[in-house]
Design brief:
The chain has 536 residues and is of the alpha/beta class. The protein has 3 domains: 9-64, no CATH class; 79-313, Rossmann fold; 325-395 and 462-536, no CATH class. 35% of the residues lie in helices and 18% in strands. The strands form 3 sheets. Strands 3, 4, 5, 6, 7, 8, 9, 10 and 11 form a 9-stranded mixed beta sheet that branches. It has a 5-stranded antiparallel beta sheet with strand order 12-16-15-14-13. S-adenosyl-L-methionine binds at residues 82, 125, 148, 198.
Length: 536
């Protein structure tokens, strides 16, 4: 599953997806829907609603001890996605230590931090499965008020709560159509910890079928949508539905510590955040729910000043990406070859790290990348780099163009030793220019060109001291790489020995675009490997 690695870190399915083989061997109802391909891979048809229902019921039974029933004509929830939402609510409410109370409007949760959490689940309905209250109550002991507008969903939800003996924690109530937070709480004075809501994503049947709402370049959904009309459609779609919840929250304010909604479209996120900003809501955050090939987004806001606000995942990923170094490893045989060649570039200390560093400095000089050695640990060498122009992009293409240019140069005509007319004397061609005496002969020039072309075809580097790349701008440049004002990016390169290999790390410092550092890293790696592959 493509997005599993981006699941919430506490999601049990993040690093251990469901084992269909094991589940099929244990649950006969699930085994009916398992298919084995010709290659022996066990799969499930996610376009078959019965197969999807069997998987959801099996996972809830196996991993949470919950027994539920879901009608095929109502929404069948996926467990990993709902689990992501529950874990995010844990983050919003301060963790799992104390029970919480919520509303599933699908849910509302009552909070007084020294008392059990109460939640509200469901302006759009808690659903037939009542999955959010069941998971929250089972995992964390949360108290839920679960509201439902649909008769079929209400009956199933109530039955699922009762048969799992959770009626003391979950109260399922039937409410009129279009009931939102104000209607659910108008007769109560309880302060809830949070509300959870999985609103109807679509405004009409055409949107639900993907007409005019799905990018034409995207493949069709890999799973079936079984939701009823009240579960998947609402006037104005999810955008207007959540806006109505926002307007309810402006009146309720501190009756809930956190208001939250899950979104099916990323394009809904920005206008809803703008609406909260316009209304002066003090605390706003959002997140992404990633699972399988599906992504969902969630928005949360609060009128309390003392609530912790989790950072949005995009900011966390950017920070992690910025901190993560680009690395490549120079293996022992290549290191040995570089050590052998190191004296040819003036490197007197031919230790592994010194040799690799010397070659890196040679390549950087050739590329006109400003660099200098900086203090570092005993077992490594460090270079501070400042790139002021992109001289490394399309290096392979440049070599190919140079080779093509060499091939297209005119070649000298072969000299004939006998005349085609025996009676006529051999005369010089008066139209041909006489070569200057100091220039090489055509044959000598062509031989040199052929040698250079062979080097190019073998993937050899253009020589570091090639006259086509003057080095005056790079060699001995008086500018300090650390103080240059106009630059593409700056980075720190660490070269260290690990066992018999040498590892090169590039750490981003600042600049315009980190992709440029990625390109330079690839160029350095390829140049080092080509140099290490040359025979002595």
């Amino acid at each position: 599953m493509a997005l599993n690695k981006s699941m919430h870190p506490r999601n049990r399915y993040k690093d251990k997806p469901p084992d269909f083989v094991y589940l099929a061997s244990k649950y006969p109802e699930f085994q009916k829907h398992v298919q084995t391909t010709l290659t022996g891979r066990v799969t499930l048809n996610f376009k078959d609603p019965e197969a999807v229902r069997a998987l959801t019921c099996t996972l809830l039974k196996e991993d949470f001890g919950l027994t539920i029933e879901i009608p095929l004509e109502r929404l069948i929830p996926t467990v990993p996605l709902r689990l992501n939402y529950i874990h995010w609510v844990e983050d919003l409410t301060g963790g799992q230590e104390n029970p919480r109370r919520g509303i599933d409007i699908s849910i509302l949760a009552h909070t007084n931090w020294c008392y059990p959490v109460k939640a509200i689940c469901g302006p759009s309905g808690t659903g037939a499965s009542c999955i959010y209250p069941l998971l929250g109550a089972t995992m964390n002991g949360w108290f839920f008020l679960a509201t439902e507008v649909d008769d079929i969903c209400f009956n199933y939800a109530k039955k699922n709560v009762e048969q799992n003996h959770l009626a003391e924690l979950i109260r399922v109530v039937k409410v009129p159509q279009k009931t939102l937070l104000m209607d659910a709480l108008k007769e109560q004075s309880i302060v809830y910890d949070f509300c959870m809501c999985n609103p109807p994503f679509f405004a009409n049947q055409l949107e639900a079928k993907g007409v005019n709402s799905r990018n034409s370049r995207r493949p069709p959904p890999s799973s079936i949508n079984t939701g009823g009309v009240t579960e998947i459609m609402a006037e104005g779609g999810e955008l207007e539905f959540v806006k109505r919840i926002i307007h309810d929250s402006l009146q309720l304010k501190k009756r809930l510590r956190w208001y939250s909604c899950m979104l099916g479209k990323k394009c809904s996120l920005a206008p809803l955040k703008d609406e909260l900003l316009k209304q002066g809501v003090p605390k706003v955050t959002h997140t992404e729910f990633c699972q399988g090939r599906t992504m969902r987004w969630a928005l949360a806001w609060s009128f309390y000043d003392d609530v912790p606000v989790p950072s949005p995942p995009c900011k966390r990923r950017k920070l992690e990406k910025a901190r993560k170094a680009l690395t490549f490893t120079v293996l022992k045989p290549t290191v040995a070859e570089l050590q052998t060649q190191a004296p040819s570039i003036g490197c007197t200390n031919t230790s592994p790290t010194d040799s690799v560093s010397a070659w890196l400095e040679k390549i950087l000089t050739h590329l006109k990348v400003l660099h200098k050695r900086v203090p570092c640990g005993e077992a490594e060498l460090s270079l501070f780099l400042t790139a002021v122009e992109n001289t490394w992009i399309h290096a392979r293409q440049k070599r190919r163009e140079q080779g093509r240019h060499l091939r297209e140069l005119p070649r000298a005509q072969p000299t004939s030793t006998c005349s085609t007319d025996a009676a006529a004397p051999s005369l010089p061609d008066t139209d041909a220019p006489t070569p200057a005496p100091e220039e090489p002969t055509a044959e000598g020039s062509n031989a040199k060109e052929r040698d250079e072309q062979q080097d190019l075809e073998k993937g050899a580097n253009v020589p570091m001291d090639s006259p086509t790349e003057p080095q005056e701008a790079a060699v001995g440049d008086p500018q300090n790489p650390e103080t240059v004002q106009c630059f593409l990016f700056k980075c720190l390169v660490n070269v260290k020995e690990e066992e018999n290999d040498v590892v090169v790390e590039m750490h981003w410092v600042e600049g315009q675009n980190k992709d440029l550092m990625n390109q330079l890293c690839t160029c350095l790696k390829n140049s080092i490997f080509r140099q290490g592959a040359k025979p002595t």
